[in-house]
Input
Amino acid sequence: MKLSKRGEYALRSLINLGIASKVGRPLVRVTELAKAEELPVKFLEQVMQQLREAGFVKSERGKHGGYRLAKPPEAVRIGEVVRLIDGPLAPIGCVSQTAYEPCNCPDEAHCGLRMLMLDVRNAIAAILDRYTLADVVEVTTRKMTRDGIPLPFSAESPPSAIRRAREARKGAASSSPAEGVIHQILGDYAI
Amino acid sequence: MKLSKRGEYALRSLINLGIASKVGRPLVRVTELAKAEELPVKFLEQVMQQLREAGFVKSERGKHGGYRLAKPPEAVRIGEVVRLIDGPLAPIGCVSQTAYEPCNCPDEAHCGLRMLMLDVRNAIAAILDRYTLADVVEVTTRKMTRDGIPLPFSAESPPSAIRRAREARKGAASSSPAEGVIHQILGDYAI
DNA sequence: TTTAAATCCCACTAAGTCAATGTAGTTTCA
DNA sequence: TGAAACTACATTGACTTAGTGGGATTTAAA
Output
């Protein structure tokens, strides 16, 4: 049930672009994005082009160019990005909601594997289609701020960014363990 | 988040061996297993050998040979099988519980992607490590029986097998939609 | 004892994916 | 004009996936 490296790099870069945007420096060079997560630059270039073609980021060419988010991070569901890069979320084609393909089992309606994998697909989609890029950025920055770690990509002096981030509510309400890590940290912000 | 064909075929065959065992004909030839789901015979041979080496099935050689389950289906968690064939359930290595690998991000503790993928891993594991082969077999046979479809691999006349299966309880209790398809069909049998 | 039927074992391949790398070109700004 | 950055395209090597093929071995039955 792997996420490909492409997918991982795409998500990492989008999250970093979200942080950069929040910090007031939305335009980031590929080399910076690569450096932040130790990714191979040329490979990341390809991934960023794919994100650009799909409308998730915009590029600016020439000196002082770079990439920025093309939409507000609230409008980007993580599931969308994963589907673009890695294809359907479903473990097998016959339970995909967005790209259904029949399997060759004799009777889909009475296929135990299908029922099981449908549950898995729904569990995955419930997370990846629920949370947006904004949620993940919020979780990341909140946790860093809480622990006194300066946010990356701050062009201005970090303190201002930290202070700004600190305005956000703090106390993470404890909730059902079934709700997951993200939900716990987002607390009452979730949904 | 794909399940490989190997993994799919392995699970399909184990489920079929479980049904065959339930129906009183536990020993099944590879050609039969392949025919039941239209799988390539020689490829399935390899998969079955892998399952044998891992102790999930036992083989009998020679004429009238075949494969049978090596353990009671209650003792086989689906997650085990998937891990054997496809590796860890986790989408990325740094959230795997059974095969953790560090990623190269600067700070795992404050990595939003990691928190998100940890939730995904837990959601997948909550299903695949919760249900056993017996659960999936039960769901399949119960649904087939309810719909009057004869179970496969019946050597004896199908009616007897159907009658026997019909002894089992019927009414599937409706439960929280978050619990998933399998849980709903298993009803009060679950856990 | 031979033969048929099954698993077992090993090698191989064709296609695709992954993770880059290389090279050249284009745009923009100083 | 030149440096810095993105853009485009081609290629590559390693690896994985999904199979295929050919026997060797084992067992049961004729």
User: Anything to note?
Assistant: Chain B has eight helices and two strands.
